[in-house]
Amino acid sequence: MSMDSRDRKRSKLIGLRFALNGLKEVFLTERNFRIHLLAASLACFLAVYFGISWTEWAVLITMIVLVLTMEVINSSIERVLDYLAPEQHPLAGIIKDMAAAAVLITAVGSVLVGICIFLPKLIMIL
């Protein structure tokens, strides 16, 4: 193995370590991220219980990933703004509100998808 190949492999592992560190940080410090993870776990439990289709799994996983990703982005934006504008600036507040709105839109969309997937199955067992 050439030196360049080892360096690239090491660089990729370092990048992965940074990403995992960021995931750990958001998990430990962001309550909403943990709430979304709990909701995702419940959705996955229901998906297994009801035996949803592969297509439904694909949609469910996509929505889970979108919501969690939006929460990480929102948290990142908040931290950047807290760093750049520690004093309360009206524009910083608006930017934070808009980032939070993106999470809300995605979360509401995921609930609607959950209703589309699980409501027919719930109705069948009632």
Topology (SSEs and partners):
Elements: H1 3-29, H2 31-50, H3 54-84, H4 90-125
Helix pairs in contact: 2-3, 3-4
The tally of beta strands, per DSSP, is 0
Order of helices and strands: HHHH
- Quickly give the CATH architecture: Orthogonal Bundle
**How many structurally independent domains?**
1
Shape: flat
The CATH class designation is Mainly Alpha
Main sheet: strands, sense, barrel: none
Overall pLDDT confidence: 93
How large is the radius of gyration?
A: 19 Å
- How is the CATH topology named? Helix Hairpins
Structural classification: mainly alpha
Strand content: under 5%
The first-to-last residue Cα distance is 62 Å
Helix count from the secondary structure assignment: 4
State the helical fraction.
over 70%
Unreliable stretches covering 5 or more consecutive residues? none
Task: Sum up the structure in keywords.
126 residues, mainly alpha, Helix Hairpins, flat
In short:
The chain is mainly α and 126 residues long.
Structural features, described:
The protein has helices at residues 3-29, 31-50, 54-84, 90-125. It has 126 residues and is mainly α. It has a single domain (31-125), classed as Helix Hairpins (Orthogonal Bundle). Helix 3 (54-84) packs antiparallel against helix 4 (90-125). The longest helix has 36 residues, at 90-125. It is flat and about 55 Å long. The model has no long low-confidence stretch (mean pLDDT 93).
